Amino acid sequence: MPTYDYICDGCGHEFEAFESIKADPQKHCTKCETDQLRRKIGGGGAILFKGSGFYITDYRSDSYNKAAKADSAASSPPPAAAAPPASGGSSSSSSGGSGKS
Description:
Helices cover about 15% and strands about 15% of the residues. The protein is built from 1 helix and 3 strands.
């Protein structure tokens, strides 16, 4: 059920009412006892995501996420095979460092 804002044109009293969407708008102000109450037009109860932490792609469907993952896997190159170390400090080094001068 939505919350509606009301204002009295007679006394300026403002309040919120939690009512069914099918209910007729209230007309009687309980503060000044007149029938000058009207429902204010509000911005609605939409969910607003403000800030830098929310993106339109955060809540994509599972089928979209699977297709995107398959597409990115197909377009990326295969991982390179691990190359042997260039100089591992082995005793059969070809650098000519035999220790003789």
